[in-house]
Design goal:
- There is one protein chain.
- The chain has 19 helices and ten strands.
- The strands form two sheets. It has a six-stranded mixed β-sheet with strand order 6-7-8-4-9-10, sandwiched between helices. A four-stranded mixed β-sheet has the order 1-5-2-3.
- Helix 6 packs across helix 14.
- By secondary structure, it is an alpha/beta fold.
- Helix content is 61%, strand content 10%.
- The longest helix has 47 residues.
């Protein structure tokens, strides 16, 4: 409620500001029209009457006033746009609190059924973990966030750095909102910018002094000729011929390079303007955490803001040169193409090799802003204690699934290294949700984000799950065959990573009950010889007898239900083996209801 109240208050304040500034826009438009019309009227009066220069001076003042009002109008419009973008950020966060994540990319493009855990743990896709966290405004930031959620093993020191950066950004709400407001006009395509930058790579350029001297002489000559023509010392026709001649020379000598440079304009100009704003926010942020400081130092130490600003101005110049009249005047009077291309080549030599690193820094910061926003929006979540241990450690109290909100039922659970936990229970009793609760909270902890528990202590280990195996008819792979391939992938993964927690939901679902039981036993007896820890949910109560055969390694837990007139689900995990099943009970109720319905419908 605290977050909702804060966001709602911000929306109300911004709405009032937007309304006020829009009224100013209306006033500015009226004043612009009045100044322009009066200036034209003053010129008309000056031409049609003999009143001296009074009305001509008045026309000049009115035109100057028009220009000033126009500048204020443009600034005011930009202010309104910024306020609207900021309000949109807060409106989206209110939608998040209401459980609507449609404003944010769900990361469906990152879905990979072959990944060790992301497919089973709902990391990507509709209403996924990524969908809830993601606020990225660049495709590079989105890729960075997806990589962070998928990376698996991280160093404990790296997790600490990320957690500190996320925590610092979480309390800098205005900074994050200002950053996110830049992305309200559309996601910046990082790959497109990098592609455009790679497209302008090529040979190194030298900058001889002679062409610059000639350009300066040509420009001075034009203006000197204009002065002489005004004084009547030379005919104006000579100046006109010289202007056309100079334009032709500048055009011919620079057009090839100009066309090469303008290829970048349409692909980068809009994005670069936003990048300048993003880098400016980052370098002026005064953040102190180690990871943020590394980003800031990379951007400031190598003049990233200066580089992007220069390139934005260059591309703006190239864009304006696309107007034929503007290009003729600028080249004829100032040899502008030459100076613009020279600036572009100087920029290329000075900054192009470092652009990719700078863009990577912005992507990294973009991902951190998303994770920090998630932390801010979930104040009940806590930081996990990540310890240094050469074994699987997972000890949690009050653990709950982050997707369930206030409805979530919390559980205490501890996992010991090289032990196996067989979890039984009826359908819909909470087994699969509990398995995902274990996995998703571990993923959050490894990313430096808060976890949904009262207390959680984990070590850094590998995670592998098999919960949502699917067939592939296009490849001729049946469901059972897909299960076998997944288990083979699991064994190879465990052989590569010596400390792995495996999470399995119903081993070998694609075969008959007896074959499934025997196969599951064989698999668990084989896998226990590897340095692997496991949680296995099953409906096969016979599989729980593994605890009798290997009492020091296998343990039974269950989600029990209560059967009376209705089925009662507690969603609490307890030691032991489930005894109550609900399938027959629920089917009897369905059959009975259908029979009663037929009786009631009969004449």
């Amino acid at each position: 409620m605290e977050r909702r109240g804060y966001y709602s208050e911000k929306v109300c304040l911004l709405t009032a500001d937007i309304k006020r500034f829009r009224k100013r826009n209306t006033a500015f438009v009226v004043c612009e029209l009045a100044a322009f019309i009066l200036s034209i009227a003053s010129v008309a009066v000056y031409v049609s009457t003999e009143t001296g220069y009074t009305f001509l001076y008045l026309a000049g003042l009115l035109l100057a006033g028009y220009v000033l009002i126009r500048q204020q109008d443009v600034r005011n419009s930009h202010r309104v746009e910024t306020l609207e973008n900021t309000r949109n950020v807060y409106l989206q966060e209110l939608s998040y609190l209401d459980g609507d994540f449609s404003h944010f990319d769900d990361g469906a493009k990152y879905i990979n059924s072959g990944h060790p855990y992301t497919y089973d743990m709902d990391v990507f896709g509709h209403d996924s973990l990524f969908n809830r966290i993601n606020r990225t405004i660049t495709t590079g930031g989105s890729d960075e966030l997806a990589s962070t959620l998928s990376c698996g093993l991280l160093r404990r020191e790296r997790i600490r750095q990320s957690r500190e950066a996320i925590a610092e950004l979480a309390i800098r709400e205005e900074l994050r909102t200002k950053f996110l407001a830049h992305g309200q006009q559309g996601t910046i395509n990082t790959a497109e910018i990098l592609s455009a930058l790679h497209g302008i790579e090529g040979r190194e350029y030298k900058f001889p002094l002679l062409p610059s001297i000639l350009a300066i002489i040509a420009t001075v000559s034009v203006w000197l000729g204009i002065g002489l023509a005004i004084t009547g010392l030379i005919p104006a026709s000579i100046v006109m011929i010289w202007l056309f001649f100079q334009f032709g020379i500048v055009f011919v000598t620079n057009n090839a390079a100009f066309r090469e440079a303008t290829k970048v304009v349409n692909r980068m100009h809009k994005e670069l303007r936003i990048y300048v704003g993003l880098i400016s926010i980052i370098v002026k942020s005064d953040l102190k955490s180690e990871e943020c400081q590394q980003i800031i130092q990379t951007l400031t130490g190598q003049s990233a803001l200066e580089s992007f600003t220069q390139l934005e101005h260059i591309l703006g110049g190239l864009d304006r040169q696309g107007n034929p009249l503007y290009r003729f005047l600028s080249d004829a009077f100032f040899c502008y193409d030459y100076w613009l291309i020279r600036r572009f080549r100087q920029w290329k030599v000075s900054y192009l090799p470092r652009m990719e690193d700078w863009i990577s820094c912005v992507s990294q910061f973009d991902a951190l802003v998303s994770m920090a926003t998630f932390r801010y929006n979930e104040p009940s979540a806590i930081d996990a204690e990540v310890i240094e241990a050469n074994e699987v450690v997972y000890d949690a109290e009050g653990l709950r699934h982050p997707f369930l909100g206030e409805k979530a039922v919390s559980n205490d659970f501890a996992i010991c290294d090289s032990h196996y936990y067989i979890i039984t229970g009826a359908n819909m009793a909470g087994k699969s949700t509990f398995l995902r609760t274990i996995g998703v909270n571990y993923i959050l902890a490894m990313c430096g984000m808060p976890v949904f528990a009262q207390r959680m202590k984990v070590s850094v280990f590998s995670l592998f799950s098999s919960m949502r195996t699917t067939d592939d008819l296009t490849q001729g792979i049946s469901y059972f065959n897909a299960e076998l391939l997944r288990l083979q992938q699991l064994i190879r993964h465990c052989q590569q990573y010596p400390h792995t927690l495996i999470i399995l939901d119903e081993i070998l679902k694609g075969t008959n009950s007896l074959d499934k039981l025997n196969g599951s036993r064989l698999f668990l007896e084989s896998i226990q010889h590897l340095p692997v820890t496991g949680i296995i949910a099953t409906h096969d109560l016979e599989l729980s007898k593994m605890a009798d055969q290997f009492p020091l390694r296998f343990h039974n837990y269950c989600f029990e239900i209560e059967l009376s007139d209705h089925v009662t689900y507690t969603y609490k995990i307890t030691p032991g083996v489930a005894r109550n099943q609900n399938a027959t009970f629920l089917l009897k109720n369905i059959v009975l209801k259908e029979e009663l319905y037929k009786v009631s419908e009969s004449p």
